[in-house]
Fold each of these.
Amino acid sequence: LRHTWRYSPPTILSGGFLLLIAVGTALFATPFASHQGMTFWEALFTATASITVTGMSLVDPASDLTLFGQLLVMVLFHLGGLGLMTFAVLTVMALGGRLGLKGQRVVREAMDQASPGDVMLLVRRVALLALCLEVSGAAVLATVWVPAMGWTEGLWMSFFHAASAFNNAGVSLLPDGLAPWAATPLITLVITGLFITGGLGFTVLTDLWRQRRLSKLSLHSKLTLTGTLILAVGAWLLIMAFEWTNGTTLAAVDSGSRPWLAWFVAVVPRSAGFSVVDMSSLYAPSVLLVMFLIFIGGGSNSTASGIKVSTFMVVVLATRAFLTGRRRPTAFRRTVSLDSVFRAYTVVVLSMLMVMLGCFLLVILEPEMKPMDVLFEGFSAFGTAGLSRGITEDLSKPSQAILMVLMFAGRIGPLALAFSLARPRAVKLRYVEDQVQIG
Amino acid sequence: LRHTWRYSPPTILSGGFLLLIAVGTALFATPFASHQGMTFWEALFTATASITVTGMSLVDPASDLTLFGQLLVMVLFHLGGLGLMTFAVLTVMALGGRLGLKGQRVVREAMDQASPGDVMLLVRRVALLALCLEVSGAAVLATVWVPAMGWTEGLWMSFFHAASAFNNAGVSLLPDGLAPWAATPLITLVITGLFITGGLGFTVLTDLWRQRRLSKLSLHSKLTLTGTLILAVGAWLLIMAFEWTNGTTLAAVDSGSRPWLAWFVAVVPRSAGFSVVDMSSLYAPSVLLVMFLIFIGGGSNSTASGIKVSTFMVVVLATRAFLTGRRRPTAFRRTVSLDSVFRAYTVVVLSMLMVMLGCFLLVILEPEMKPMDVLFEGFSAFGTAGLSRGITEDLSKPSQAILMVLMFAGRIGPLALAFSLARPRAVKLRYVEDQVQIG
Ligand SMILES: [K+]
Ligand SMILES: [K+]
C-alpha cells in the first residue's frame, strides 16, 4: 500500500496557502472591498493576516472595509483557521466527488488518525461542531449586542465575533474593538470560551466528542487539556498580580471587573489576539509573559498557532524526566514516545530560531523603534496572535514583509515540520558512535 | 567497584563554591582589601563575581581595591576559572597526600575521561599549560605596557590581564579598562588569544596537546573547535557590518583599527567580558547578537561559561538530522550518541528557563529601567560574561541578589547538570507508550 506522491504534504499545504493569499489579495484590491480603496501592499498584508488568522492590520477592518471586505476576511480566517486541509476535503465533498487518496493522506496526517474511515467522519464532525459553536456563541452574544445595537448590527456583530473568536482570528469590527466589552462577564465568557475551544484542536475536540469520559481520553488530549488549564490559570493569576493597580490596563475598570478583564488578557495571547488592553501600557513583566504565551500558542491542529501546548508539555515532561535520571517521560500512566520527544525539541528549537531570526532582522530594519516593541511584534506575528504595541502601520515595508513571512511560517511551519518529522527514515548507523561533552 | 557517596558531585561542587564565596566575602570586607572599605554587600558581590569569573562589579577594582584586594580577585578567578575541581586536586597534591577516590571521581567526571590514571596527568598538564600561557601572554603584553607604564606597573598589569583573560574573568585594573588598547593589534591578539584558549576547555586542550594532529582529535574537540571558529568569525563579520559607522563604537577608531576592535567585540562575549566598547552604545542588532553569544559561551570544562559550544553544536546537528529524516546526528564521520543529544537539549531548555526566570524577576524588580538593559544584565550574569549596559550599581539589592544567583547557576549549573545527567537510570517502561501530536 505504498504510494509515491508527486508533491509532499508540506508543499501542497504551502502552495494552497500561497494561492489563497494571491486570490485574497486580488479581491481586497478591488474597489468592492474597501471604501477608500487599498494599495496592493495593504491588500496583500490584509489577505496574509486574515488567512494566517493573525489579524494584524494596516487598515481598520471596522471603518475601512465594506461589508464585502469584511465577509472576505471572515471567509479567509475560516479557511486558515478551521484549516486549509479540512476545507479542501469539504470542498471535494460539496462537489460530490469522492475524496482522492492524496487529499485524504494530507488530512489523515494532519489529524494523526490511523484509520482512514475516521477521516471523513472527523471532518464532518469538526465542521458541524464549529458551526454549532459559532452559532450558539453568536446567539448568546446577541442577547447583549442586539439590545445595544439593534437587530441587523447586533446579529452581524455577534456572528462575526463568534466566528473570529472560534477561529482565533482576533479581528473585531467594533469601532473600539472588544476593549469596552472585555470586562462584561457574559461577553468575556463566550468569546474566551470560543477561542479556547477552537484552540484545543480538532483531535482533542473529536476525542472529547467520542469519549465523553475524561479518563478515557488519549494522552495527547489529556496533555493538551492539562496544559491549557495550567497556562490559562497561571497566566490569569500573574496578570492580576502584575496589573491590578495599572491605571491604563486593569485599574481602568472597577475592581469587581478586573478579574474578568485579567482573564481575557491572560488567555487572549494563545493566539486569539483580540486587543482588549493597550499592549504598550502593560508593565514589562506582563509583556514578557504575553510574549511567552504567544510563543506557546494553542493545541495541535487547532485554529491557534505557536509551538503548541502539547509540544510545550512534552518538553517540560522530558526535561523533568532527564533531570530525575530517567530517559523517558511519563504522564497519565503512559510513556511519551521517543519520537514525540524528538519532534517536540526540534519544533521548539526551530521555532525559536525562526522567531529570533525574524526579530533580529526587524530590529536591524527599525533602528528608530524601541527593541521591545519590535520583538513583541515579531513574536506576535509568528504566534499569529496579532497583538501589537501599535507599531504595525509605522513599520517599513521590508519589516512588514518579514511580519508576513513570520505569520506564514508560524501558521503552517510547525505543522509542515510535523509532517516532515512524522516518519524518520530508519538509517543504520554509518559511523561509530561517540560522546560529546555537554554543559 | 561500586561506591555509595555521601554527597553527590554537584553538592560538593556547590558547597565548595559557597565556602569560597564566604571566605572571599570575609576577606574583601577587611580594611586591607579596599581603600575606602567595602560594605558587606559590596564584598559579597565582589567575591561572587570574582569566583564565578563574571567580573561585574559594584566597586572599581582599579581605583577602590588595594593590591591585596586585587590579588584576592586574581586568586578567586583562578579558583573559579581554572576550576574548583582541578584546584581541589592540586591542593591535595600540594599537601603531599594521595588523591582520594571521591575527589578523583569528581575530577574524572568533570573531564569525562574514562581512565583514572589519566586524571592526575591531565591536571598537571592543564595547570602547567595555564601557567605557561599566562606567563608568555604576560611577557608579550609587557613589551607594550612596560614602555608605556614603567617596569613595576607594566609587569603587574601584564600579568594580571593575562591571567584575567585566560580565566575569562574580564576584570581590568587599567583606569579606563582595556578600551584604549582594544584596537592595538598586539594587545588584541594576545588577550583574545588567551581567553579563547582558556575557553576551549581542558579536554580540548589536553586532546590538542596529546594528538597534535587535528584529524586524530576526538569528536568533542572537533565540534568545539569548529563551533568556536564559526561563532568567532561569524560574529566578527556581523559586528563589522552592524557597527562600522557607529561613531560611539567601531567608528570611534580609524578604519584600519576597526577590524581589530570588531574582533575583540565579537569574541569577548563568550565569556571573557572585558569592556572594550560601551554596550549601551551598540546598535540593537549587535546587542541581540552579543546576548546570543553570551548564552552560548565557551567550551565544556573551560574557564568560560554559557550552555557551551559543544552543546550548541549538538543541538544544531540534531535539529538538522531530524529535519532530514534521520534520527541520529553525524559529524566528522562519527554518530553523536543519543545521550549527548538528550543532555544537550536538556541543558539548553533548563538554561533558557533559568535565564528567563531570572530576567523575568529582574524586569519585575526594576520597573523604571529599560527592559533591554535589564535583560542584557541577566544574560550577562548567567553567561558569566560580566558585560553591562552600565546599570549594575543602580540596581536594587534584590536585583543584585538575582544577578549573584544567576552567576552562581551559570558557572556551576550546566556542569552540575551534566553530572546529574551523566548516567540515566535504565528503567523498564512501566507504562504503555503513546504518541503525542507535536507542532
Ligand atoms: K489572532
Ligand atoms: K567574565
Amino acid sequence: MRAFYYNPMTTQELVKQIHTKKSFLCIGLDVDLEKVPAHLLQEEDPIFAFNKAIIDATHHLAVAYKPNTAFYEAYGLEGWESLEKTIKYLNENYPEIYTIADAKRGDIGNTSTRYAKTFFSHLNFDSITVAPYMGEDSVVPFLEFENKQTILLALTSNRGAFDFQTQKVEGEEVYKKVIQTSQTWKNHHNLMYVVGATKAEYFKEIRNIAPKNFLLVPGVGAQGGSLKEVCKYGLNEDVGLLINSSRGIIYASAEANFAEAAALKAQELQTEMKEILDKI
Amino acid sequence: MRAFYYNPMTTQELVKQIHTKKSFLCIGLDVDLEKVPAHLLQEEDPIFAFNKAIIDATHHLAVAYKPNTAFYEAYGLEGWESLEKTIKYLNENYPEIYTIADAKRGDIGNTSTRYAKTFFSHLNFDSITVAPYMGEDSVVPFLEFENKQTILLALTSNRGAFDFQTQKVEGEEVYKKVIQTSQTWKNHHNLMYVVGATKAEYFKEIRNIAPKNFLLVPGVGAQGGSLKEVCKYGLNEDVGLLINSSRGIIYASAEANFAEAAALKAQELQTEMKEILDKI
C-alpha cells in the first residue's frame, strides 16, 4: 500500500490558523452520489471531483475538513480510493488544513493500534474520532501518536445520545465520566472530544472538566444548535472549538454552481465566527 | 463496485448447523502479515491465500468466521480487496457458514444506514458488530435488515471493559442497561450481543435479561475465559453461544503446516463443544 509522509500539524498550528483565517469552521465531506450535481457523475472519480471542487472553493474559510468514512466505505474499493485521493490532495495542496477522519473506531488494544496506524501513518490524517465504550486500552493506542489527536465521542448530537450518554453513573452523566476518566489516561494531552451543539448549556460543565481540550462540535444549524450559545460556554483561551457543518455547506446547491454555493454558506458561518473572535 | 447476492442465513439455520457440526465455534480471521508463514508472502494476495487455507482446513469444525476489519483496513485498498475476496469465497464455497464482520461501527442514523448497506448488502455478511454508545438511532438502521444480525457490544473481554461498561447506572451496570434498553428497540429479534468470557458468572444475569439472543463470546483460552463455565451459565435452548477464537487457532503454527495445525486447535475446541452439546 502507499504511505504518505508529511509534517504533522500540531494543535498550536491549528490555533494559529484559526486566528489567521478568523474561522474555526470544519467542513464535513460526507459525499453521497445521489446528492452531487449530475454532471460530476461523468468524471472518472465523481467523489474526489466533488471534494476537490468543494475544498478549492472553501479552503480559505475553513480550518479543518472531516470526511466521514461511512460514506466512502459505502462505495467499496472505489470509495476508499476516493478517500485516499482526498486526504492526499488536502495534505499536498493545503498543508495548513487540519484533517479529521470521522471513523468512530475503537477495539481491543492491538487492534486499535492497527486502526491508529491506518489513519495516522498510512492515510496521514491529523486526527480520528474514536468511540469510548471499550475503555482505556482501546483508546490509548491512538493517543501514543505524538502530534496526532484522538477525538473521543463524549456527547453526540443525535437523539440516541440520551439513551446511554446522559444516564447517571454515581450521580454523574456517562459522558462526563468519559471525559473525566480519559483525562487520567497516558498522553491525554492528545485528546479532543465530540460534543454536540444541541444542548449549549452542557458546554459550561464540560469546560470545568476539560478546560484545555479542543471540542469538535456537530449539530450547529441543521440539527438546531446555536453557534453563539455554543461559543458563550465552549470557547477557551485557545478558542478550543471546531464547529462542523456538512450537508448545510456541501449540498447548498446541486447545480453547476455547487462549489460557489458551498463557499457562500461557509462564508456565512465564517463571518459569524469572525465577529465572535473579534470580541475576545 | 461489485455486489454479491446470496440467500441470507437465518438464525434457525445457524442453530441447525450447530447441531449438525456439534460445534458453536467461530474462528476470527485477524490476519497479520508479520505472523503468516513466510512462503505465503510470495502469493499475489497473501491475506486471502492465508484465509482460504485456514477456511478449507477448518470449515467442518466451525459454524462461523469473523474477520476483524481493522486488520484489513491496515493494508489499505489491497486489504479491502482481500476482505471482499474472503467473504465472497465463504459465501460461494461454504454457504452454510455464518459470517460476522467485526467492524464495531455505529454513527448517527443516516450514516449507520450506509455502514449497514456496506456490510449487509454489498459485502453480504450475515452480521456485524456495532458499538452502542450513540444509542437507538445509531443501531436501528442495522436492525432493519431482515435475516441479518446486529451484534451489539455489551461486555467486552478487555481490561477497559471495567472503565465504563461495568459502572452502575441507577443501580445497574451500563452493559446491562445496554442489553435491557436495546431489547425495546424495533426489530430487536435481530440482535446478538458481544459478551466476553472473562467473567463467566456475568452470563447468568445476562441470560435473565436476554434469554433468547445469541451471544458472541471472545476471550476463551488466551484471555483466560473457561468454555465450560461460559456454557454453564450462557447456553439457552437454541445453544445461543458463538465462542470465538482467533490467534489461538490461526497462528497455531507459522510453518508450512499452518492450516493443519489450525485444524488441530479447532478440533480440540470442537471436541469440548461436542461433549457439552451431547449432555444437553
